[in-house]
Amino acid sequence: MIEYINETTDYLKNKGFENPEIGIVLGTGLNQLIEHMDVLKEVSYNHIPNFPTATVEFHKGKLIYGILEGKKIVVMHGRFHIYEGYSPQDVTYPVRVMKQLGIHTLLISNASGALNLNFKKGELMLIEDHLNLQGSSPLAFKGVSLLGERFVDMGEPYDINIRHQFKTLAEQHNITLHTGVYASVLGPQLETKAEYRMLKIIGADAVGMSTVPEVIVANHLNLKVAAISVLTDECDPDNLNPINIEDIIATAKQAEPKLILLVKALIKGL
Predict the structure, then answer these.
(1) Residues in domain Nucleoside phosphorylase (predicted)?
(2) So what's the pLDDT on residue 188?
């Protein structure tokens, strides 16, 4: 893997990806941030050596480099999921490459379902902790200790200082920003009523199918990491309506300006 990472990194450096400070992973329906960047370079995933290729139709599949609020950033415009048939190592490979390129901070967004009935569709949730229910770990492979400490401490996986900054910025801009626990499941099927009840019992406030593998690897690489969920539906098992993926994406787009405002303000202050 070290050889692959070096090969990928060299390719991107030769393409002009020079010393980014911050990496960003954009989730489902969340891509308008690109319009706020001064884009300098972009490369399709299928042109990058050793990179997976996004197979979900609403994930664009480009790595983008540019300037946002005076900082050099690299953005994953489309992410990978285990439910697409990738291994946890495939899903998190771009995080390792971004670290090798030079980032010190990783910001992640996703679309998720609200289990906490005090949270409403279209609001944001700052992830303060998570439940890994995907049945695997991106660190469970031979030779992982060559890339970092095998037994990574996950007592505080989401950077406290960045979380505090996000909360302060949300208050300043009058944006509702809940805090909660994110459960990451395998998917791609949505949850049953019984599964929603179980997730609530074990302490989850929102549920999705991503993010946790990237956060684990970010901690493995000693990156500062923070993540925000856009709550795109309300998962009340006693009043459950059929899921409409188009509606989820539309809700994400409607809520996205609030997320962009927070991310831009955070980056400006980093």
Answers:
(1) 22-268
(2) 95
